[in-house]
Amino acid sequence: MKGELLQELRRDKGLSQKELGALLSVSPFTISSYECGHSDPDDEAKVKLAKIFDISVDYLLGLVREPCSYRRDASYVYRRDERTIQLPAGFSPQEVQLVRQFVAFVQYQKEAQQRGDCP
Predict the structure, then answer these.
(1) Average pLDDT in the 20-39 region?
(2) For residues 10-47, b (16+ Cβ closer than 10 Å) or e, as one string?
(3) 56 and 33, same structural domain?
């Protein structure tokens, strides 16, 4: 985890090191240590940080570039062939269905082109 990211998230949320430490049940010195890169939070603390900042743990660890929300509604996650598309939380069930239909249509077109059925 990059300490600069934690510091940026904390400041954006308007929290002091003392306040964030209280939320994690650690000292302000520990928060400073995380932010300076001298130590890393344990897994439990990483999950708490993701909840506090409403980001994914993957984003916190630098594995993805976009800060997906920690609070994902599973009905708005579409899986096909081991790939995941996270849709905005405000999508209605009808909009989710439209996205699924569009993905199926694009897949159908791709397969038709591979078979030579489509120019």
Answers:
(1) 95
(2) beeeebebeebbeebebeeebbebbbeeeeebeeebee
(3) yes
